[in-house]
């Protein structure tokens, strides 16, 4: 029989669990200097340390003799140091060479820019080395391997273990981090599990206490992965519960609108559309209308690649609002896109006798005043606009539907501010940015998803080609050919002008934003095109930094054909529709994500003539940047590209979002843990269905964990 826990042992375990909230200064080996070093890593409490999991492991349970270490392969050897020598190159590069021996041979380990290693390692030490084996100058070699001094006189057999490698920084080494974590596990590691035991058993998860031990000091690599997956599930479940709980709090005391979905405006609008809805569009529209008719608040995300007809589906929702006698707000990220919505849907709404107006920063004051008055009186059914819709001067009489396009481009506070203008308003968010399902569930776990994958009109298509800066003449030749044939072209740059430091780039990994000294700017490129590359060609500029009226004028000149080549930033990424544009050149293309590049190339080849896109990239052929661009050459499927982008980059970089309330997952891998995302999503919905605010006694620990991890989701609500 198992040991029955006593009251004393249970109390001790609860006490250890409570200690997770204590400062790391309570732990052994954490002095003032180390406490400051840990804080720089984001480790302030004991629980932060426990969840600071290793980013890799070295498997010293499979030690290879030097003679049997295969050249070109990763290997781990444990051997005795024979000699340590310091060297310096002509460029003053400091090199340390450590020669080691076992009973089968000799290996030389080379360390670059780490002169202190010569002071840490001495002849006679037993050292473990892990890295890729090469061969040069008659000896097997390892360049910049991971190393660990085992001691003096300890053989390989005494070092057979899996060694964790934690992320560290200045002031705390990998070995000291292991020592601190080991002490913490010994003192407070036997913690209570915040998950219900039934859920842990049903999902076949490790207990929390065991997972913490195994993730830091695993018995095997398999055990480490099982432990990591338990902690990843915890993170994903908490995120899903935070989203659902926040949603419940937002809707507390709100009276939803049950929309009429089969009225005369709907019939007239469907008849006014210049085409019939495809099966996929009809399914998405039916899902939206079912939600709008139901006695609950809709929260739906419509995913659709470039040109799949999301605008037509949104029009159906607007007709339902008109039939209900209420109002809708359609918010777009740019004035260009807002105006385009009005131009595309305005005539259809007019034919269906649905009143509408456009409100942007460029709207004349007298025209805006008229629209604001009509909106407040309930005389307007639909208002298109930008963040101008958030102004205090614009009030709705009965706002029952909010449509937000490219919602990841707006902050959490902006989206919430618009919804507060109509208590209980349904939300339809749309995006043409391809988002993998796992990422959509993680970012929008409280949202129902609709997808449109097929384009009703494919257009002539686009050919994508990657070129180096040395071969840009090919791209400029394609632009000249397009212009000569009466077509138009885009030239896309990452920066607005040469004064930019790259910090405001929308879709550039953080590590690359500071290295922007050689990036091309739109202003300098425009000058170069006019004076040297495309003299005589009518070129113009469009950037997000221009005033709204200037942007509208620049876009109108391009649409009408007065501008032949438009030099722009990613402001043209979404929604810009000029069927006569057939060529595009993207400079420094490796500085953008696949989703953005896919959106950009969707601007050409939209009419009867095929398009061509040249992506300029200075990165080496075998680099990760070139791998991503090669994928664009190989496929035009946006969702396939989104899945690849997720595998290559962190989930926060895929969308390029830097906004209030942005999600950052520390342990989960949305590609490798796709099954956990689905499980956590399903489990969170089941829990929230029974206890949406996590108030039941059985869910108290769960509620505390959710608040601890994702409390920021609730701060905005509490401020409001």
What does this 3D model show about the protein?
- With 720 residues, the protein is α/β, with parallel strands linked by helices.
- It has 26 helices and 21 strands.
- It has five domains: 106 residues, no CATH class; 99 residues, Nucleic acid-binding proteins (OB fold (Dihydrolipoamide Acetyltransferase, E2P)); 73 residues, no CATH class; 189 residues, Rossmann fold; 174 residues, P-loop containing nucleotide triphosphate hydrolases (Rossmann fold), CATH 3.40.50.300.
- The strands form four sheets. It has a seven-stranded parallel β-sheet with strand order 11-12-10-13-14-9-15, sandwiched between helices.
- Strand 13, helix 14 and strand 14 form a beta-alpha-beta unit.
- Helix 21 packs antiparallel against helix 22.
Helicity, in percent?
25-40%
CATH topology of the largest domain: Rossmann fold
Structural class of the secondary structure composition?
A: alpha/beta
Biggest β-sheet strands, sense, barrel: 7 strands, parallel
The count of β-strands is: 21
Poorly predicted spans: 153-158, 504-516, 652-662
Strands side by side in the biggest sheet: 11-12-10-13-14-9-15
Q: Calculate the terminal CA-CA distance, rounded to whole Å.
A: 55 Å
- CATH homologous superfamily placement of the largest domain: P-loop containing nucleotide triphosphate hydrolases
Tell me the β content.
15-25%
Key phrases:
single chain, 21 strands, 5 domains, 26 helices, 720 residues, OB fold (Dihydrolipoamide Acetyltransferase, E2P), alpha/beta
Give a brief outline of the structure.
This protein has 720 residues and is of the alpha/beta class. It contains 26 helices and 21 strands.
């Amino acid at each position: 029989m198992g040991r029955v826990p006593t009251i004393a042992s249970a109390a001790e375990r609860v006490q250890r669990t409570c200690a997770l909230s204590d400062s790391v200064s309570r732990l052994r080996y954490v002095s003032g200097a180390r406490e400051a070093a840990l804080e720089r890593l984001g480790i302030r409490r004991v629980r932060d340390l426990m969840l600071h999991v290793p980013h890799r492991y070295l498997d010293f349970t499979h030690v290879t003799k030097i003679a049997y270490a295969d050249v070109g392969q990763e290997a781990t050897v444990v051997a005795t140091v024979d000699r340590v020598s310091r060297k310096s190159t002509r460029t003053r590069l400091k090199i340390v060479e450590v020669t080691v021996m076992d009973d089968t041979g000799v290996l030389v380990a080379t360390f670059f820019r780490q002169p202190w290693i010569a002071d840490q390692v001495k002849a006679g030490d037993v050292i473990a080395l892990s890295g890729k084996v090469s061969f040069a100058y008659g000896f097997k070699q390892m360049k910049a391997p991971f190393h660990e001094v085992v001691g003096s006189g300890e053989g390989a057999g005494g070092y057979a273990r899996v060694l964790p490698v934690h992320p560290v920084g200045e002031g705390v080494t990998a070995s000291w981090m292991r020592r601190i974590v080991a002490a913490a596990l010994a003192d407070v590691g036997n913690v209570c599990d915040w998950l219900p035991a039934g859920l842990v058993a049903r999902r076949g998860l490790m207990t929390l206490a065991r997972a913490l031990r195994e993730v830091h000091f695993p018995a095997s690599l398999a055990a480490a992965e099982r432990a990591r997956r338990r902690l990843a599930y915890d993170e994903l479940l908490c995120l899903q519960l935070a989203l659902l709980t926040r949603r419940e709090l937002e809707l507390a005391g709100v009276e939803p609108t049950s929309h009429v979905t089969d009225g005369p405006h709907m019939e007239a609008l469907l008849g006014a559309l210049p085409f019939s809805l495809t099966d996929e569009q009809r399914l998405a529209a039916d899902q939206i209308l079912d939600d709008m008719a139901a006695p609950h608040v809709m929260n739906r995300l419509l995913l659709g690649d470039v040109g799949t007809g999301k605008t037509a589906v949104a029009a159906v929702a607007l007709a339902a609002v008109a039939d209900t006698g209420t109002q809708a707000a359609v918010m777009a990220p740019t004035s260009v896109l807002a105006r385009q919505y009005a131009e595309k849907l305005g005539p259809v709404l007019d034919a269906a006798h649905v009143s509408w107006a456009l409100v942007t920063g460029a709207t004349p004051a007298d025209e805006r005043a008229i629209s604001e008055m009509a909106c407040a009186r309930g005389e307007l059914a639909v208002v298109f606009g930008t963040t101008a819709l958030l102004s205090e001067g614009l009030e709705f009489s009965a706002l029952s539907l909010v449509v937000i396009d490219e919602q990841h481009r707006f902050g959490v506070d902006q989206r919430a501010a618009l919804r507060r203008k109509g208590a209980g308003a349904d939300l339809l968010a749309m995006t043409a940015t391809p988002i993998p399902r796992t990422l959509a569930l993680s970012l929008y776990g409280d949202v129902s998803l609709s997808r449109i994958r097929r384009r009703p009109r494919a257009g002539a298509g686009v050919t994508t080609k990657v070129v180096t800066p040395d071969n840009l003449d090919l791209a400029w030749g394609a632009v000249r050919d397009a212009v000569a044939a009466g077509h138009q072209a885009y030239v896309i740059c990452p920066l607005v002008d040469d004064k930019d430091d790259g910090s405001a780039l929308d879709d550039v990994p953080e590590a690359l934003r500071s290295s922007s000294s050689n990036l091309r700017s739109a202003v300098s490129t425009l000058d170069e095109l006019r004076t040297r590359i495309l003299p005589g060609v009518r070129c113009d500029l469009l950037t997000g930094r221009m005033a709204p009226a200037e942007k509208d004028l620049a876009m109108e000149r391009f649409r009408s054909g007065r501008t032949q080549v438009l030099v722009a930033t990613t402001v043209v990424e979404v929604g810009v529709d000029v069927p006569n544009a057939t060529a595009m050149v993207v400079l420094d293309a490796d500085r953008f994500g696949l989703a953005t590049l896919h959106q950009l190339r969707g601007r050409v080849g939209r009419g009867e003539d095929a398009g061509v896109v040249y992506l300029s990239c200075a990165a080496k052929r075998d680099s990760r940047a070139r791998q991503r661009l090669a994928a664009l050459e190989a496929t035009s499927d946006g969702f396939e590209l989104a899945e690849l982008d997720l595998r290559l980059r962190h989930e926060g970089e895929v969308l390029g979002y830097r906004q209030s309330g942005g999600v950052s997952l520390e342990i989960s891998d949305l590609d490798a843990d796709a099954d956990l995302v689905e499980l956590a999503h399903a489990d969170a919905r089941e829990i929230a269905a029974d206890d949406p605010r996590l108030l039941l006694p059985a869910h108290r620990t769960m509620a505390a964990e959710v608040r601890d991890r994702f409390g920021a989701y609730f701060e905005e609500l509490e401020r409001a």
